[in-house]
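Teaching soon. Got one?

===
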Amino acid sequence: MRSVTTRDDPPRVLAPYVRVGFQDGTLFLGFGSIRRPVHDRELWEPLLRLADHFRAPRTRAEARSFLDGPCGADAHRAEAVMRLLDDGNHLIPAHTYDPADRYSRHALFYELSGADAVQVQLRLARARVTLLGCGGIGGLVAVTLATAGIGELVLVDADHVELSNLTRQFLFTEADIGLPKAEVLARELRRRNRDCRARAVVRRVGNREDLKALPACDLVVVSADSPGLTGTVNAHCARSGTPWLNACYVNEIAVWGPLVVPGVTGCWDCRSLTAGAPEGEPELSGLMAGINARYQAPSNGPVNMLASSLAALDVLRHLGGFGVPASLNRRVGVWSHDLSLDGQDTERDPACPTCSLTGLPVERVR
């Protein structure tokens, strides 16, 4: 029987990511963020029957007719099982999932978050992201965004591929040693998604004039480790109104954030986020500078992947408009040796010398 469709009652289906199972005397509808434990045994059979019924497209009216008729559920149980399926994104629009579509699995992820997958994908396709740094983190962020359908990536890096990069910069090969990282990365992204416009910019960024010379974008990702770059980017983005996100590592800690959205969140300068030299102590400052001058961060592929994947997810959340980025108003660190989570709040400081004088309207964080 064909579904009867109306504007207010479109056909829906049980989302492919919904599984059911029994454990410790409880029926679970879905797992992960959508998991719903069902303890009432009287609901088990009608719920499973209705979930099975929604394997084909059904309207709400058809579902209620099924519950009242073949299922034989009374009004109380019918309402309870309908509520269970309605809550938690267990049902999705009938034509959301097309296994043949390039972004079909991502579409399910967006629906899992309660978003309209078609609209999310359109927003991503219209977005331009600038990546400052194409190394261990920047390269992984880039390929994640490109394959997710971001419309354009501007890849900025002055460095060339070196042998020691190959332990963690996985889009480069031995044959690429000596070539500009940005150009090699752009080539590899085009091979993976021809619809993503990858533009290489082989230059070093050291001041606001360098940033002004780059194309306008919807978001900047900073993974380059040039001294003072985060502060320079923060000042530039505060004035231009461009969101930006930092992603890096601190020894074995994978770090990303804060996601700075001018006029909405705090900025890099609203709170002290990194350790520095003591004020009024020139001798101690000199000693610290000498010690730190020899610092070489240990860079490890898995830690790079952890930071880059979580940063990329927040970029997709922000640009696609689904869920809430984990790094919004927060700098987050995952300590890879024991998997503990750390965070630094970056709430807006009304007296911040960088973002309080930009003239941008202050909005509430969504």
About this structure: The chain has a mean pLDDT of 92.
